[in-house]
Each structure stands twice: as C-alpha cells, then as structure tokens.
Write a structure and sequence with these properties.
Helix 16 (353-362) links the parallel strand 6 and strand 7 (366-370). The chain is built from 17 helices and eight strands. By secondary structure, it is of the alpha/beta class. It is elongated, with a radius of gyration of 29 Å. It has three domains: 19-110; 118-180; 187-382, Rossmann fold (3-Layer(aba) Sandwich). It binds guanosine-5'-triphosphate. The site of guanosine-5'-triphosphate has 18 residues, from helix 11. Its main location: membrane.
C-alpha cells in the first residue's frame, strides 16, 4: 500500500541527511584534526577571543563537551581568515564554513549533531515537492506539507536536540499527520452514541467500490454488534438491485429495493421505516453512481437529504483515482456536504496522493480504507498509523 510514496519520502530523508553530512564534512575533518591537538590548544594563548566567541554562540549548556566543541568551532573560525590570505585556496573552505551558522554547525557537530541551514533544504524540498505532486498529492496539500517540514527543520534544529535523521522523520511525521488527520472523529463512538436507527447514505461515482463498501460496512457493524438493513437508492442503473441483493444474500441481510427508475429518496425512506419497525440499528443507503457534473443526479441527492435527513453521508472513491478522486471529493462535498470518505482499493494504490489529500481538501476525514475485495477488507483510517507506516523502516 502506497509504496511509491513511501519510497519518495524515504528519498527525501536520505537527501537531507546527505546534504547535512556534506555540509558537516568540513567541520568533521576540522574536528578530527583538532582533537589530536586539543590538549596542546589548552596551553596556546592564540585566538582566545575566538574561543570565547565560539563558546558563547555554539555551546550553551554542555560542560563536558565544551572544550571539544569550542575547539572545533575555533578551528573552523580560524580557517577562513588564514585562507583569505591564500587567495587561490579561499573558495574551498568558504563554501562550507562561511556565514553566521558556521560556528554553531561546528559546535553542534562536535557534540554529534548537525544543524540544517535553509540553503541545505532548498534542493531536497524542491525534490520533495516534485515527488508529492508526482504521487498525486493535491497542490495546496503539498505546499502545506513543505511549509511544515521547513518550519520544523529550520526552527527546531537550532535547539540542537536531535540528529538529522530523527529531525527529518519528525518533520515529515508532523507535516503528514497535520494534513491527513483534518476533521478526524471516532466513527465507532459516533455510531454508539447516536439514536437508532442511524441512516448512512453513500455517494460517489460508478465503479469505485461503493456497493462493495456498503456490504463491508454492514459486516464491520455486525462485528461490533449492530444490525443493519441495506436500501438500494441506485434506481438509475440497470442491475444495481441485483448487485446489492447479491451482497445482502451473501451476508444474510435485509435489503429494500424499488423498481428501476423509482424515487431514490423513497427507497431509503422505506429503509428507515423498516429499521424503526424492526429494531434495526443502521440503514445503509446506496445511491446512483452519479457523475458529479450531472445536475439531475445531484438534485436527487439533495432530495434524499431533505426527505431522509441522513445522520451521515459518506463519499466513496478509489485511491487509485489519485487527483481525480480528490477533485470529486471536493465537488461532491460542495453539492451535498459529506461527513467523511471511504477510500477503496488502497491495497492496489502505490501513489497515496488521494489518501494524503482528501481530508485536507474537503475538511472532512477519511474514515475507512478499502484494502481488498473481501467483506472484511475494510480498515478504520488511522492517520498516525498510516504515517508511521509511510515513514517506517520496512521499506
Ligand atoms: N482491490 C480492491 N478492490 C475493490 C475494493 N473495493 C471494491 N473493489 C472492487 O471494485 C469493483 C467495483 O466495486 P463495486 O462495489 O461494484 O463498485 P460500485 O461503485 O458500487 O460500482 P457501481 O455499482 O457500478 O456504481 C469490484 O470488483 C470490487 O470487488 C478494494 O478495497 N480493493
């Protein structure tokens, strides 16, 4: 699941680590050279002003490492000035050791840490942006992720609290969780607390796995002790009754249907009446796989809203549709406010773009992932878990 995206996030982590290591290389060699002369340095009276300066900038609170850190900083601080007189050699060391961050970088390195400068991030961030867009992450979502990563890495590193690898991981983790978990609520809790029967209406275009998801959710609810009835509000498409009927038979559930061409709102209404009369907990109402561009079909949805007043409207789309799924989610939500999304076929999606983007773009959470064709192939969507998996070592 989402393997392409995993690889790309991992590349970003490697890019930043590499860049940070390169930037620290000069400091490392300076540090190594200096360690061998560290004791001699203690006796030297030269560059005492530099020593004091380096300590005050780079090493605030680490007693035991003070001398090593300051020594590293000192060497680095000395290098440019001595190089400046050697006109031809000046370029080499200037690249990595000039600028206000140098002392800090060197001091941090001496204590086993690396500071990320804004320049270090420029190329990796650009690569990350391209990777996210290639993975079908929606533009505004990609930008939000980049902003958070940059903010976290530049701001926090200066505190010298962690290594580059840890820092990149935390920055990506926070950025992804931020966009993925928009609007999250506990579906099970919502079901448990609501007055019964609860009516859930499913919307989305044809063929994305809507009918299968209704059957899966019916099973999911049964596993948690809730009975359900299916109501086929897809009166538009020939064969829709038979399709849902088949699932109902397989799962031994009651199904309410009307003739093809009938009023979808009336079918779902009958489902609610049946549930009330028979003490059924949940009504699962299918709707026609409408094109979001079809006014007629959209007005059917509005009528269902008016007549049945569903407790929840869930938008269903397939992860493999990428940006198209994101766009449809937005348009469906505009036409008839959704409460959340079921994202199907996550098991066969490498890009992960829809999973990353839909909640941020609609302001409504992804509640479930479809992970296969079986009735038990539905998983509650857990943003933290997904991000851990995306950033996990098992790539
Ligand atoms: N791999 C995989 N296949 C799925 C998943 N969910 C549904 N499918 C398959 O996708 C195909 C379409 O699913 P349907 O439930 O018929 O889709 P629908 O949206 O109801 O389609 P219409 O009834 O034609 O509007 C079926 O072959 C399902 O088995 C999933 O999570 N993973």
């Amino acid at each position: 699941m989402f393997d392409g995206l995993k690889d790309k996030l991992n590349s970003f982590r490697e890019d930043v680590e590499e860049t940070a290591e390169e930037a620290a290389d000069a400091d490392e060699s300076a540090d190594d050279a200096d360690e061998s002369t560290a004791s001699a340095d203690a006796d030297e009276s030269t560059a005492s002003a530099d020593d004091a300066d380096a300590e005050s900038v780079a090493v605030d609170d680490d007693d035991s490492d003070d001398s090593a850190a300051a020594a590293a900083a000192e060497t680095d601080a000395e290098t440019p000035s001595s190089d400046e007189s050697d006109s031809d050699d000046a370029d080499d060391s200037d690249d990595s050791s000039s600028g206000p961050g140098t002392l800090k970088r060197a001091a941090a390195f001496a204590t086993g840490k690396v500071i990320i400068e804004e320049d270090d991030l420029e190329d990796p961030l650009w690569e990350l942006e391209m990777a996210l867009l290639e993975s079908d992450v929606e533009m505004s979502v990609a930008e939000q992720i980049l902003d958070t990563v940059e903010e976290t890495m530049i701001g926090e590193t200066r505190k010298q609290v962690e290594t580059t690898g840890e820092l990149v991981e935390r920055a990506l983790h926070d950025a992804l969780v931020d966009v993925i978990s928009v609007g999250q609520f506990d579906f099970d809790e919502r079901i448990a607390e609501a007055d019964k029967p609860i009516t859930i209406v499913f919307t989305g275009v044809n063929g994305v796995g809507k009918t299968t998801s209704i059957a899966k959710l019916s099973e999911y609810l049964a596993d948690r002790g809730y009975s359900s009835v299916m109501a086929n509000g897809d009166t538009y498409r020939a064969g829709a009754n038979e399709q849902l009927q088949q699932h109902a038979e397989n799962l031994d559930r009651k199904i309410i249907t009307h003739e093809q061409g009938g009023d979808p709102a009336a079918v779902i209404y009958d489902g609610v009446e049946y549930a009330e009369a028979n003490d059924v907990d949940v009504v699962l109402g299918d709707t026609a796989g409408r094109l979001h561009t079809s006014d007629d079909l959209m007005s059917q949805l509005e009528k269902i809203d008016r007549v049945v007043d569903p407790d929840m409207t869930l938008f269903v789309d397939e992860a493999v549709a990428g940006q198209d799924a994101v766009m449809r989610a937005q348009e469906f939500n505009d036409a008839a406010a959704i409460d959340g999304t079921i994202l199907t076929k996550a098991d066969v999606d490498a890009s992960g773009g829809a999973a990353i983007s839909i909640a941020y773009v609609t302001g409504k959470p992804i509640l479930f992932l479809g992970t296969g064709q079986g009735y038990d192939h539905i998983e509650p969507f857990e943003p933290e878990e997904l991000v851990d998996q995306l950033l996990g070592a098992d790539q």
